[in-house]
Specification:
This is Tectonin beta-propeller repeat-containing protein 2. The protein is mostly beta strands. The protein is built from two helices and 24 strands. It starts with 6 loop residues before the first strand and ends in a 5-residue tail after the last strand. 24% of the residues are buried.
Length: 330
């Protein structure tokens, strides 16, 4: 495996030397790890015990008296082409979004061919038959965010329509227009739903936070939108996308130059977090955040996954690229 095709490291680092060596030897000779290690010990200042593999994972010793362990879930081995029943393989889908529901119930996919139509597919349905979901009249969707009990749709005018979902009716019955009068002349351009909280970005790149995914809460009080200071950036550079994890523990944002930011200090006591940190390495055009990690689509269509994310390290450690290019993913 040519590691350097997928892992993005700082230039000139110890790992760069390791990766150049493994790529030049392992890919050309198809040689086993032992031969690569022998090569490394011969042509660099590394010890022969540089790489070791066991049931736990692959261990790499760096020159700074540090051990690095690569372990965890695989990112899959290949892409499978899927054609939902009743559609033709030439169908062009503009976007697809998945809701975060318990695994035992499967996942619902929301697909659109244009701004004026919406379909729902249950991933446990072997034939992937799409069900048509009617949109509110005169609404053209530009963005969709799905969570366990609601589907938030953002239209071209910045209005939000919410479709309440339930176990008995997983694709919902009707849409409710969200009252955004509190925001005044603000026009939202992006929304993201977690399990409890909703985040949004407006046309000026400002960030807003709201508790509750439903149009109204139990006390029938209108939930308040809280303004959150965006990262300080040069004039003309602003946030355009925001993405929260299904469990509300991760929050990532994207600006109009493709730079990525992570919100630090998120907790049950401080659900809005405390600060923004820049996450370097890639120019990004789309993000998807799970409970454990972050996936991004680069400006050139390549996909990458962020590794090392934890409560103590919300930014993670490094990017790893996934083979293939896409126009959209979920």
């Amino acid at each position: 495996i040519s590691i350097s095709d997928y892992v993005v490291f700082d230039q000139g680092s110890f790992f760069q030397t390791l990766l150049q060596a493994t790529q030049s030897v392992a890919t050309v000779t198809r040689g086993p790890v032992e031969r690569v290690v022998a090569f490394l010990s011969q042509y660099s200042q590394c010890q022969p015990s540089l790489v070791s593999a066991n049931a736990t994972g692959v261990w790499v010793a760096s020159g700074r008296n540090q051990l690095h362990l690569a372990r965890g879930n695989l990112v899959g081995t290949f892409w499978q082409n899927v054609v939902p029943r009743g559609t033709v393989s030439a169908t062009r889908w503009t976007f697809i979004s998945s809701s975060s529901v318990p695994h035992k119930e499967g996942t619902f996919l929301w697909l659109a061919q244009s701004r004026k139509d919406l379909f729902c597919v249950w991933d446990r349905d072997g034939e992937l038959r799409p069900s048509s979901v009617s949109l509110p009249p005169e609404v053209e969707l530009t963005h969709l965010s799905a969570c366990r009990d609601a589907l938030w749709g953002l239209d071209i005018h910045g209005q939000v329509s919410i479709r309440t979902l339930s176990p008995s009716c997983p694709i919902g019955l009707h849409w409710t227009l969200l009252d955004l009068s509190q925001l005044g002349s603000v026009r939202l351009v992006n929304v993201s739903c977690g399990s409890q909280n909703v985040w949004a970005v407006d046309s000026r790149g400002l960030v807003y936070f709201r508790v509750g995914t439903q149009p109204l809460n139990a006390s029938m009080m209108m939930p308040a939108w809280i303004y959150i200071e965006p990262p300080s950036q040069p004039i003309g550079v602003q946030l355009v996308r925001i993405q929260t994890s299904p469990n509300d523990r991760l929050l990532w944002a994207l600006d109009n130059r493709g730079s990525v930011f992570v919100r630090t200090g998120l907790s049950d006591e401080m659900p809005v977090g405390t600060a923004w940190d820049l996450v370097p390495g890639l120019a990004v055009s789309q993000m998807v955040v799970s409970c454990q990690t972050v996936w991004v689509r680069c400006v050139n269509g390549e996909l990458a996954r962020r590794y090392g994310i934890s409560d103590r390290n919300p930014a993670g450690d490094y990017w790893k690229k996934i083979p293939g290019t896409t126009n959209w993913f979920t």
